[in-house]
Every structure is written in C-alpha cells, then in structure tokens.
Amino acid sequence: MPSTIGTPATVAELIKRADQVLRPSDSSRLDSELLLAHALGCDRLAVYRDGNCDVAPDQRLQFEGLVRARASGQPVAQLLGTAEFWSLSFHIDANVLIPRPETELLVATVLDRIPRSHPSMIADLGTGSGAIAVVIALERRNATIIASDLSTAALAVARRNCDIHCVTQVYLLRANWMDAFGEAKFDIIVSNPPYVCAGDPLLSSSAIRFEPSLALVGGDDGLDALRELVAQATVHLKPGGCLLVEHGYNQGAIVRRLFYKQGLQRVTTAPDLAGLERVTFGEMVRAAERFR
Ligand SMILES: C[S@@+](CC[C@H](N)C(=O)[O-])C[C@H]1O[C@@H](n2cnc3c(N)ncnc32)[C@H](O)[C@@H]1O
User: What tens digit of pLDDT does each residue of 13-38 get?
Assistant: First the structure.
C-alpha cells in the first residue's frame, strides 16, 4: 500500500485505499476494517462510527505494514494475533495452526460422548493453540484433559489460552504423540493431527504456507501422523473408551481401515457441513465383548 504519511487521512479513506490494495481477495473490505481496528486498538464498530476521524501517523504506519503483510498472503488471524473458534477468541501466533471451522465438528462429536454428570479423562493430542482442550474444559467441567504437543512453542500458546479462558483442568505435556503418557488410560482420545500430503501444491501457494509445517504435513500420503497416533492411542484407551480424529475429506475410508486394524469397533465417520467425510471415531472393545 503506498504510504499516506505526510498527508492527513481519515479512517474511511484508509479503509478505502486498503480495500483497493487487497481487492483480489473476497474479504478485502472486512480485512481492511479488522486490520485498521487492530492498529487503532478499537473494535470494528468504532471504525464505522469514526469514519471521519484523522488517523495518527504512527497508527497509519502500523496499518500500512499490516496491509502489506496481508497483501503478501499472511492470514488475518496471524496479523491480529487472535482467531475465533466455538464463538470464543483464541490467542494465536505463527507457531500454531489457526483453528478451523471444520474442527468444531470434531469438538461437537467429542462433547456428545462426554457425560456432564461424572468425571472423565480426556487426551487432546497435537493441541496446538489448545482450542479443542479449552472448549472441552469449558463445556464439561468434570473432565480432566491432558493436552500434548511436540512443539514447545505451541504449548506456550496453549498455556496462554488456558489462562485467558481461566481453565484449570487442562494439563499440558510435551510428547511425541503418546510417548510421554506412561501407563495413563483415557475415556476419550481426540486429535486433529497434520494430514496434508507433503507434495500438496496448497502448501506453497495458499495462505497456509504461513502456518507451521509440523501442524500441517503428514508425510507423502498425509497419513504418517494418523497411522502413528491411532496405533499409540489404542494402548491408552480404557475398555469402551473412544478415539476421535479429524482427517482430510478423502481420507475417511483409509482411516476407518486404520481404526479396524488396531482393534477399534463401531467405527463411524461423520460428514462436515459440506457433506465431506471429516471426523472418524471408534471404540475400544470391552473385555466382555472380546470373548463373544
Ligand atoms: C493440525 S494441528 C492441530 C492444532 C489444534 N489441535 C487444532 O485443532 O487447531 C496439529 C498439531 O499436531 C502437532 N504435532 C505434529 N506432530 C506431532 C507429534 N509427533 N507429536 C505431538 N504433536 C504433534 C503440531 O505441532 C500441531 O500443533
């Protein structure tokens, strides 16, 4: 965006110019408003209300930097440092995946299986920003959640989100999937693992190139993490316990096979709002069923 420094510019003028710079994007107007509100330290409503106010040079400089970064493809959520998930605001940075709307289906499917009335032990593997663990903790006060990640930087973000949402029953653990879980057994194990194929052109061409590859890439066929964590999780499920994973829209059949291969039963895949296979879950066989 050409610098406006040197000439006075109002809120409305700056938004108009940024909108033009970002125009190839469908959300250019919305992004411009959000970025200016961020630079001004106000909410989006104030940007509408104060359209005729002049913007101070230091705030314009900050805004112009944000617009340039957005024009280069950086996601708005990273520039704002926050993302919405489950109608809550989460702190995020470049070390974590920006929580996606699809993952709300995973959370809804998990919540259906956690009783409100009595305690349960939950593991959230690859917690990233902690979004899944925090929502479960807020929605099910009786649940204890161990949320793990390989990335120490991601765990720091998850810690901050637990503090922001005053959640005290989430325990953070650095682990390579479940290698640091000892003998622990869980009622529910949930994960949104990396499941993009290494060669997927999306990784270099779209906004996701700004997100950590550790959070995205699941090896050549996208299934490395799923294979590893499904195998490990079955060792840590209580009899009757449930494993739930998010996966790519075209990975449902192979993930169901992975579940069956590891001895899980009643394996089901739930579609997302677009009708695409997105979340697979299955149960660990109970002792009584094993000998039938
Ligand atoms: C797709 S992101 C999901 C983040 C978050 N749970 C969400 O749904 O928004 C996958 C997460 O798995 C973590 N991860 C990748 N490899 C891992 C491993 N071997 N062990 C544990 N976590 C891993 C990444 O650091 C990342 O935070």
Answer: 999 999 999 998 889 999 999 999 99
